[in-house]
Structures are given as C-alpha cells and as structure tokens.
Amino acid sequence: MVASQLSQPERTSRHAAGAKGATNGRKSADEVREDVKEYYGRIIQTKEDLQTSACCTEEKFPSYVKPLAGMVADEVASKFFGCDFCVPNVLENTSVLDLGSGSGFDCFIISQLVGETGRVVGVDMTDSQVELANKYTQWHADRFGFEKSNVTFHKGYIEKLDELGLDDASFDVVVSNCVLNLSPDKEAVLTEAYRVLRTGGEMYFSDVYALRRVPDNLKDDPVLRGECISGALYWNDFITLARKVGFTDPRVVQSEPYFVDDSLMDKLDGTEFVSTTFRLFKVSNLEATIEDYGQAVKYKGSIFSAPAQLVFDRDNIFEAGAVVPVSRNTFRMLRASRFRSHFDFYGCCSKKHFGPFPRSQPITI
C-alpha cells in the first residue's frame, strides 16, 4: 500500500508507534532523534569536526552551480554537512521540498534555480539549524534580487510531514542530502515523500548505504549515527523499501566509496559504505523489470545546465540531437515528468515486446 492510500488514522498510528520506547533494549525513535539533534546542534560546529567524507567540496559542484553556491551566506555554507551534490536539473518554476534542510545551503541554491515564481520548503528538526536558515531567508532574497523570499523553513520531523501541513501532491521534486540514514523510521520518510509528490514528480537524493547490514549493537552509537554510518541502510534493503512504498524503479545517478576515519573503523568490523545519489519517480505503470518495447527518445539539448549531454542516470546518458533506444520505464519517466518538453518521443503507442531491454541490469552499487 502506497502513501496516498494511507488513511489519516493509519498515518497517526504509525507516527505514534515510532514515539514509544523500544521494546528490544534499543533506543526509541525519539531517543535516536535527540542524539542526532545533539550531534548536529552542539557537537558538530563546522565540516572539519566530521570524521567521515560526509561533506561535498566545492570541486564536486557542477560548473553552473559554483556561482550559485558562491551567493550563499558564508555562515550558512559553513554549516553544510551533506554527502554529495543533490540538486537535479530542470527546476524552473517548480515546488521543491528539502528533507533535512539543515542550515538551508541546498535550499538557497535551489531558490535561485526555481526562480522567484518557484517555491522551496525546508524541513529540519534541529533548532539551531532552522534558526540559522530563517535568519538568512530575506538576506538571500535581497541578494538574488527577489521582491520576497521564495524559501520557507519548518521545524519538524521528516517522517511526519502531514503534521506540518504539507499536502498530498503539493511538490514537483523532493530532495534530501545525507539525511535518510539519520532517521529512525526510513519507511515513513519515503512514504511521506511519495505522498507529497505530484504524479510525475521525483525524489532526488544522496545518502550513505552499507554493503552489508549494520549490526544492531552499532545502531545506537551516537557518533556512528551522527556520522551517517550506523543508521545507513543495507543497499538491497533500500531497494526493497523504495519499491514497497511505490517507487517501482529506483535509478542510480552516481555512487562512490564513503570514507570513514581510522578512529571509527575498528568499531565497524570491516563494513564498507558508499555515498549514492538516487532518483525515484512517482510514475504509474512502471515495471519492476526493465523491458524493451522498441521505444526511443531524442534529447533536444534545451536544458540550460546540460546543453550538450544530459545524465539522467548512470545507464541513460543522452547526447543532444541523438535518437537513443530506451526501456519502457525510462520512456514513461521522461514523458510523465518535467523532462517531457525537453525530449522528442518515438513509439509512444508501441505494444510489441522485444524482451528485456538490452542494457538492463540489476541495481548494483
């Protein structure tokens, strides 16, 4: 059952259950959240305090983003703790929700991309981060030349977006930067993201994943949790969970090793991690397998940030002007989403099945 099918009593019951104390000797959801708030509100003051490769350096930003990042207040940038660059293409005039928005760094970059007629909403549970973000909303609007700010921030839980008054089907894009692993209820986060997305919308986010399941005895360690390690989902468990809530065909945009400080490695008993950017589309009629129906698309080269080549995911890279065969799922994602006007489509009504798509492969690291 996907999020849009959950009744309000069912959502409330799920939220209430998460607040109760744990019965298995482990910390409750509320205790985990308090540990995270403490870690990012008091212990971690700058990027240099982190013991992992959590932070994205400016060198990893695409060239078109660097000047936008340079427009963000220094105090806000100094409190950015994301694990990758996490802003997708084609955001003009859209509504974007940032889960775990922290100091607002990503939100203020996105603010410039959606433009004055777009909308950006950030949600974070840490008082000091939300206060800092709110301190600079009008400052950034003035710097961007906007009459008023197009960014708002809410203090709250990303598992409980309904409690913040965020309506069903009210956003085009949901982003999140190295936050899902911090949540004690990842299914609720994905369920809520699915609920607030419009049909054709997407969740585009970076996070840390374990290459094997993290032992239970490590999950309550506040340092390992705060460093985005012990709360990381096992890769295959994430794929299963995403599909369960309605994101049928998760796509990997990029993935790279996640480096951990030597002082933490002894605790982890050889467990390795990756930092990965996924895109999850809320599109109906996607299949769990990647199938070939003889369809193709041509990228027009009309996206300002990708005039020559568009990296849709690591298996679908479109050169401008080239007609490229695609699977039915990819065809449907492009046609149902904000990417539609940037492509020509061939074989829209094709019903002949040619078998598995030639470049299809399991969702591997």
From TrEMBL:
Record EC number: 2.1.1.137
- Catalysed conversion reaction: arsenic triglutathione + [thioredoxin]-dithiol + S-adenosyl-L-methionine + 2 H2O = methylarsonous acid + [thioredoxin]-disulfide + 3 glutathione + S-adenosyl-L-homocysteine + H(+); arsenic triglutathione + 2 [thioredoxin]-dithiol + 2 S-adenosyl-L-methionine + H2O = dimethylarsinous acid + 2 [thioredoxin]-disulfide + 3 glutathione + 2 S-adenosyl-L-homocysteine + 2 H(+); arsenic triglutathione + 3 [thioredoxin]-dithiol + 3 S-adenosyl-L-methionine = trimethylarsine + 3 [thioredoxin]-disulfide + 3 glutathione + 3 S-adenosyl-L-homocysteine + 3 H(+)
SUPFAM superfamilies recorded? S-adenosyl-L-methionine-dependent methyltransferases
Q: Where is the composition biased (Polar residues)?
A: 1-10
What Pfam families does the record tag this protein with? Methyltransf_31 (PF13847)
For the protein in the UniProt heading, the enzyme class is transferase
Alphabetical UniProt keywords: S-adenosyl-L-methionine, Transferase
According to the UniProt entry, its GO molecular function terms are: arsenite methyltransferase activity
Q: Where is this region: Disordered?
A: 1-31
Highest rank taxon of the organism: Eukaryota
Question: Any idea where the Methyltransferase domain is?
Answer: 92-244
Q: Which family does it belong to?
A: Belongs to the methyltransferase superfamily. Arsenite methyltransferase family.
User: This chain belongs to which protein, by name?
Assistant: Arsenite methyltransferase
> What high-level taxonomic lineage is stated for the organism?
Eukaryota, Rhodophyta, Stylonematophyceae, Stylonematales, Stylonemataceae
